[in-house]
Amino acid sequence: MSVPVTVLSGELGAGKTTLLSGLLESADCDVAVLVNDVGAVNVDADLVEVRTDLATGEEVVALENGCICCSLGGELSRAVIQLWKEHEFDHLVVEASGVGEPEPIARQFVRGPAGGPYDLSAVVTVVDARRFHDRFADADSGDAPAVQGPDDSGTRPLADLVLAQVEFCDLLVVNKCDLVSDAERDRVAAVLETLQPRAEVVTTEHGVVDPAEILGVERFDLEAVTDAAGWKRAIETDERGDDHAHGEAGHDHCADDNEDHEHDHAHPPERYGIAVDTYHRRRPLHPERFAAFLADLPDGLVRAKGLCWIAGRDKQAITMSYAGSETTLEVTGRWIASFPADRQETYRRGQPDLPWDEEWGDRETRLALIGRNVDLDALEARLDECLLTDAELDDDWLEYENVAPTGMGETTVISIEP
Ligand SMILES: Nc1nc2c(ncn2[C@@H]2O[C@H](COP(=O)(O)OP(=O)(O)OP(=O)(O)O)[C@@H](O)[C@H]2O)c(=O)[nH]1
C-alpha cells in the first residue's frame, strides 16, 4: 500500500517546524519527515502552464524538460524512495524550504517515480497571521506595505512566493493568531479564501492543531489545485464569458458565482471589502506609462496576475505578477500571432478555443485583480490610460523606453515608489 504524504509549505518563520514538532509529539502513527532545503529552487509552475497555453506542440516538452523542478525532482525522489526502502512508517511529511514553492515538490509525488511508493494526500501551507495581515490584509491602516526584498535567486519578490504558496495548497494553517486581534484574524482568513477559494482554513497559535486535521486531509488533486488560485479562476471565468464587447472588462466580483468549480466556502464576506475583477483589453500597453502605473499601485491591491501585451514587445507574452509591493514582469511565452501564418495555423488548430482577434490575434492583456478596500474600477480606468491612444498606434513602438524583459524567462521587477 502506498504511504500517504503531506507537503508542508510556508514562508520562513511562519511556524512550519513548530507545527511539525507538535504533530510528531501527538500523532498516533509513525511519521517520517524530510526537510527540503533546496533554497535556490524557484520555479513558477503557473508560468510553465502559461507557456503551455501559448506554445503548443514540441515547445512544451522542451520547456518542461528544461525546467528546474525536474532537477529538484531527481534528488527529492531519490531521497524519499531511499527513505521508504530503509524505514517503516505510516506517513511522510515533506517540509518545503521557505523560499521554494510547493508545486514542484507535489508534482514529484504525482508524476515522478516517488508516485509509486507514495500517495500525496495534501499540500498544507502555514501562514504567519501577523505578517500576512500587515502585508496583504491591512488596506485601511493607510500604512505603506512593507517593502519586500528579492528572494535568494535575486529575481523574484518574496511576497510573490508567499502568495504562490497560498495559491497552491489544500489546507491553510493560519498560525501566530496570538499576535493578531480577532478582527484581524478574520480579515486574514477572508483574504486567504479569496486568494485560494478551494483550501480549508484552520487558525492556530503555536502550531497547535489536531494531527488528524493535518495528516487526515486527503484532498490533493493536481488539476483542481492548479486551477484553484483566485486570480486564475477570475481569468478563466472571464475567458468563458468572452463575448464582451471589444475592450470591455469582465466584472466577476469574486468568481464565486462560477458554479463549474468545486467551491467549499462562503463568499468572502462583503464586509471585508474584498473584490476580484478581471481586466481584459486587446490594445497594447504603453511601456512607459505602464511602468509608472506599476510603481504607483494602491495599498489595497492584494494580488494582480495575468498576461500583458506591452507595445514594443511584439513577440513576447509577458506575465505580470504583483504581490506585496513589487511586480515581476516575465516573458513566459510567445504570441502565436507573431509566428508565420502556417505555424499560426498549426498552433491554433491545437487550441481551438483560443480567443482570436482579427487584427491582433492572441495578443491581449488579461489580468486578475484582487483587492481589499480598493476601487478596482478606478484602477482599471488608470490601466486604460496606459493603453496606446489611437494616435500612438501609428508610432514606432520600438522607440519607447521599455524596461520589459525580452528573452524567454527573463524578468524585470518594478517596486512601488514610496
Ligand atoms: N508568537 C508566536 N510565535 C510563534 C508561533 N508559532 C511559532 N512561533 C515562533 O516563530 C518562530 C519561527 O517558527 P518556526 O516553526 O521555526 O518557523 P518555520 O516556518 O519552521 O521557519 P523556517 O524553518 O525558518 O522556514 C519561532 O521562534 C517560533 O517559536 C505562534 O503561534 N505565535
Characterization of this structure:
This protein is of the alpha/beta class. It has two domains: 3-227, P-loop containing nucleotide triphosphate hydrolases (Rossmann fold), CATH 3.40.50; 230-415, CobW-like, C-terminal domain (Hypothetical Protein Yjia, Chain: A,domain 2, 2-Layer Sandwich), CATH 3.30.1220. The chain contains 14 helices and twelve strands. It has helices spanning 16-26, 45-54, 58-66, 68-86, 102-110, 129-137, 158-167, 182-195, 211-215, 222-227, 230-240, 287-294, 341-350, 376-386, and strands at residues 3-10, 31-35, 91-95, 118-128, 171-175, 200-203, 274-281, 301-308, 316-323, 326-334, 365-372, 411-415. The strands form two sheets. It has a six-stranded parallel beta sheet, with helices on both faces. A hairpin with a 7-residue loop joins β8 (301-308) and β9. The chain starts with a strand and ends with a strand. 49% of the residues are buried. The structure holds guanosine-5'-triphosphate. Residues 10, 12-18, 98, 175-176, 178-179, 205-207 line the site of guanosine-5'-triphosphate.
